[in-house]
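Hi R.,

Here's the chain you asked about this morning:
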Amino acid sequence: MPWNNQNSGGRGVGGGPWGQGGGGGGNQPPDLDDILKRGQDRLKQVMPGPGLPTPLFALLGLLGMAVLGFYAFTFQVKPDEQGVVLRFGQFARTEPPGLHLRWPYPIEEVRLPRVLQQRITQVGTRPAIRGGAGAVRDHPEESLMLTGDENIVDVNFTVYWRIRPDRDPKTGKLGVEQYLFNIEAPENTVTEVAESVMREVVGKTELQPMLTEARQKIEQEVQRLIQGVLDSYGSGIRVDQVQLQKVDPPNEVIESFRNVQAARQDRDRLQNEAQAYANQKVPEARGAAERILLEAEGYKQQTVAEALGQTSRFLKVYEEYKKAPEVTRRRMYLETMERVMGGADKIILDNKNGQGVVPYLPLDQLQQKK
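And here is the predicted structure, written out as tokens:
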């Protein structure tokens, strides 16, 4: 029968589902005896007779005890979990996935951390309650940091971590044991340690490398330092990866930084073009210089060889001249005149011996020249 707060029949205002209250006693506590009596009456209506059958009552009692014993003495560990059993509040043992036995509470207590689940901690942003799936909300108190060259940068990053599955090599304790008992609020601890380490690394790095080529180096350095701090706490946490999501100047000056970045890119492009032009022209100039040097060396060797040859020829002529000066002088005169006058188009006749020569006038050739 539904509970109706309105007046109905002989009930007063504020009557409960069992009919308690009435008149001005709407806020009075329910009468337990009356409730039990009404429950017995309804049970008798369902099962007519002088009372409950004894076999049925015993069967229900045994079934209830079996169910209670099952839940009191057993527990189940899911595939991605690891059962941690505490005996009187102290770590006793771990159990793999499956169904296991335990002493009932408060003798033994079981905790089931998800050791295979990779946890994600975001620094600088949080998932937004409103705005739909994928919406985030900025936390500038975590993301605004000071760089090594005294610039402000907005850094958002994500830390991927999980519970360590093996034992700590220093203490020999299991990672899940350290995770449960050595630190309080592990997720807050990871967030605070990650933010502190990132501020340390950013404080040693200049702004320009952070915006360009130093992102991977920063991620590796931050991961190493976070792992070192968590190991010193004995947290039982293993950091899988640190990933930078956003590294930008503050929103108030981001446009100016973009202009500076564009100017630097133009500068680098012009420098690269000039370097490429230099790389093209310098080898060409060196090749031309080498060619000129080789040509000069060849000309020198040719000139020296010709000079040596002329000297040798002159010495040989001189040797012959010393043997017969008059004959040699006459021959040299004739050879010189032949060389000088051999290409001339004039004919010189001796007056004595040229009297018998008939003059020849080439009229046809004179007409062709005109």
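One quick note: The CA atoms of residues 55 and 227 lie 64 Å apart.

Cheers,
M.
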